[in-house]
Amino acid sequence: MNKVIFTADDYGAIPAIDEGIIKAVNAGKINSVAAFSNHDHFETKIKKLQDACAEKTFEIGCHLTISSGKPVSGRKIGLLTRSGTLSLRKGKYFKKYTQMRRSKHTDRELNDLHYELSKQVEQFDRYNVPITNLSSHHNTLFFFQDFHEIFFKVAQENGLAVRSPLNIPKAMNDLYISMVVLRMFDNMSKENRKCILNHSRNMRTFLAHFEALPKMPIALNTVHYGPLALPTNNLNNEEISSFADEKNLALREDLSVEAPEEEVMEYVFHLIDDDYAKLGEYCNQTKFSKSKYTGIDSSYFDSRMAEQRALLNFDLSALVSFESWKNL
């Protein structure tokens, strides 16, 4: 039986995602929730999670983001933010992760980044919500070494564990980084694109030489994750069920390999309420006019539904033992 942390990402911004996560926690399938703090109605949403799952044992983490929503600090952070041009979008919003650019004024950019990440963490303290860990939306804080150092610094300052930047399967992460760099071609300089690739390739060396490394699981396992590269949601209900079966089989096979007793692995899940008849309605929730939030892609919602179905419809209790972030 393997020691694991099962984390559901992206709580807070989209109601259908929130509902799926709440159902997964209450079904005993998830013991960790990574929540955004940079959206409207944060207090209401996070209290809903706590109240709805009050009978369950689970932990909340801050899902730090520089690629969705808007800065909590209200600051313009280097070239990571943009100002809205429409009346609906007055203020500063984070750019998509594929549109990221680095500022030439690196020191100021890093100072503002540290301030923003700290403010996102402080949101939980403000409303007396205990958190135990930090993660990064789209893994953007793992793109550059100096960003990564700021991420670790914020964790150290708050006494929090962190998500591991080491991914299993490694090939999946390598493909993700390669695709990100390719899609950044028009915005990011050649030098900075090279920095992203080099930091990813040298991640183990970076971790080995980092002083006072925050506590983290042995790695992040993404075997259950797999958004389809589709422009629209066009899987029918039967196809989603078939995809869910494949996901569950892959997860079972992975968990059947017994890990060393001292190792704790984090598995990440991207969930949504499993109601196929409402899939179109759920996709509509991501529109800015409704959510006032950017950076959640509805084209992956059919895959999220497959993940939800795979996790809730099968019993994995004989294969796993839930571990706490506090015990790392």
Structure in words:
- GO terms for molecular function: deacetylase activity; hydrolase activity; metal ion binding.
- Keywords: Carbohydrate metabolism, Hydrolase, Magnesium, Metal-binding.
- This protein is of the alpha/beta class and 328 residues long.
- It has one domain: TIM Barrel.
- 40% of the residues lie in helices and 14% in strands.
- The protein has 11 helices and 11 strands.
- It has helices at residues 15-26, 42-52, 106-126, 145-158, 170-183, 190-201, 203-209, 237-255, 279-284, 288-291, 301-312, and strands spanning 2-11, 32-35, 59-64, 81-83, 92-94, 133-136, 161-162, 167-168, 220-221, 264-269, 320-322.
- Strands 1, 2, 3, 6, 7, 8, 9, 10 and 11 form a 9-stranded parallel beta sheet that branches. The chain has a two-stranded antiparallel ribbon with strand order 4-5.
- Strand 2 (32-35), helix 2 (42-52) and strand 3 form a beta-alpha-beta unit.
- Helix 3 runs parallel beside helix 4 (145-158), helix 5 packs antiparallel against helix 6 and helix 8 packs across helix 11 (301-312).
- Mean pLDDT is 92; it is low at 86-90.
